[in-house]
Design goal:
It is a single chain. With 336 residues, the protein is of the alpha/beta class. It has one domain (7-334): NAD(P)-binding Rossmann-like Domain (Rossmann fold, 3-Layer(aba) Sandwich). It has helices at residues 7-15, 45-48, 67-78, 90-98, 114-127, 156-178, 213-234, 260-273, 277-280, 282-289, 317-331; strands at 58-62, 82-87, 104-108, 135-138, 150-151, 154-155, 183-187, 241-246, 300-302, 305-307. The strands form two sheets. Strands 3-2-1-4-7-8-9-10 form an eight-stranded mixed β-sheet, with helices on both faces. The chain has a two-stranded antiparallel ribbon with strand order 5-6. Strand 1, helix 3 and strand 2 (82-87) form a beta-alpha-beta unit. The structure holds NADP nicotinamide-adenine-dinucleotide phosphate. NADP nicotinamide-adenine-dinucleotide phosphate is lined by residues 62-63, 65-69, 87-88, 92, 109-112, 139-142, 160-161, 187, 189, 247, 249-250, 252-254.
Length: 336
């Protein structure tokens, strides 16, 4: 069946807005035919979860105080889930949790601080009241500035976007495995295409040899997708799944470090070619909750449908295995 042209695609094609280059065309490329949903780029988080009763689910969302994480928390709580809303401090988490309807518990997770990540995992044990964790949505993220920033000798975007979440997932794995069908949802980006030629620069994780903010952001987001791919291999046949996704381009605080003209472009042109926050949160809510995805693992989603990423890295099993091994080494002292 031919794909319907959406409002956004129409506008994109019509006005050829230069910022559309942020949306990699490879994402629109080949789509596997399985698990196709009726949803598309215009679907909202409320629409993709309509009719679902999540009252037996416990869900942890990182970065729940802002942007896509906030909308994800709001909508999953609206559908009855007990949402553990993680933010960098309790003030932000409590404010976000108190502002939505439903069963939401604020918790702290500062991803640059691995003690905080470990404490977050411990809080999950405490607040989930003996229940398993059904879903971990690794949503928090940053887009770096033009100057290199490091955390314990590692480039900051790699730590916040990927490595902190890797540690959180490892610590929570037993609770996810205890769920009838645990899910790990890794929020990646279309800018995975900006990753270095080698995919992950293992000899430059500090960023000291060379640093470009988009390359480093792309590397961290490729790492999220490689995590899901490798996880699905390692835990194949088990009830716990991992998938990655691209939410689209949405005007949020993510772009706070961008130059003024990019921010102006978003503000002026946003209504026409960007997704709303409600639409941007749809894919992660769909991947986190839709019953049709119970056995789907290791895939990459955009606009609530699986897509096949182009480029050499996603099919590079050695790269994914190396990343897993190096990530274990880098987080070793916090794993148990
Ligand atoms: N917006 C887009 O167009 C777009 C496109 C592709 C992918 N994404 C991805 O979508 C996810 C959500 O981003 P967003 O657009 O909703 O941006 P956002 O509004 O800036 O939200 C990012 C969240 O991450 C949190 N965060 C930042 N640094 C953190 C740290 N060190 N430890 C713990 N949490 C931290 C932020 O907390 P504070 O508020 O305290 O800083 C905030 O809650 C990110 O992973 C982003 O890369 C977004």
């Amino acid at each position: 069946m031919p794909k319907t042209t959406t409002r956004r695609e129409f506008i994109l094609k019509s006005i050829g807005y230069s910022l559309a280059s942020l949306i990699p065309h490879s994402l629109m490329a080949r789509m596997p035919e399985f698990v196709r949903s009726k949803f598309n780029a215009d679907s909202t988080a409320e629409e993709v979860t309509a009719g679902l009763d999540l009252s037996d689910k416990t869900v942890l969302v990182t970065g729940a105080n802002s942007g896509l994480g906030y909308e994800t928390m709001r909508v999953l709580a609206l559908r009855g889930a007990h949402v553990l809303a993680a933010a960098r401090n309790m003030e932000k988490a409590a404010k976000a949790a108190a502002s939505v309807i439903g069963n939401v518990t604020p918790i702290v997770c500062e991803l640059t601080d691995f003690e905080s990540v470990v404490n977050c995992a411990k809080s999950v044990e405490k607040h989930s009241l003996g229940k398993p964790l059904d879903v971990l949505i690794c949503n928090a993220g940053i887009m770096g500035g033009s100057d290199l920033q490091t955390v314990n000798g590692l480039e900051k975007q790699f730590v916040v976007n990927y490595l902190g979440h890797f540690l959180l997932a490892q610590r929570l794995l037993p609770r996810l495995k205890a769920a009838p069908q645990g899910r790990l949802v890794m929020v990646s980006s279309g800018l995975y295409t900006k990753a270095p030629d080698t995919g992950i620069e293992f000899d430059n994780l500090s960023g000291k040899k060379s640093y470009d903010r988009f390359t480093a952001y792309g590397q961290s987001k490729l790492a999220m997708a490689l995590f899901a791919a490798e996880f699905s291999q390692r835990f194949s046949g088990e009830s716990v799944t991992a998938n990655a996704l691209y939410p689209g381009v949405i005007q949020t605080n993510l772009f706070r470090n961008m130059p003024w003209y990019v921010k102006l472009g978003f503000t002026v042109g946003g209504w026409a070619f960007l997704k709303s926050v409600e639409e941007g949160a749809a894919t992660q809510c769909y991947v986190a909750s839709h019953p049709s995805l119970a056995n789907v693992s290791g895939h990459f989603f955009a606009d609530c449908n699986p897509i096949v990423l182009e480029g050499p890295h996603m099919s590079d099993r050695e790269l994914a295995k190396n990343l897993w091994r190096v990530s274990l080494e880098l987080t070793e002292s916090y794993l148990n």
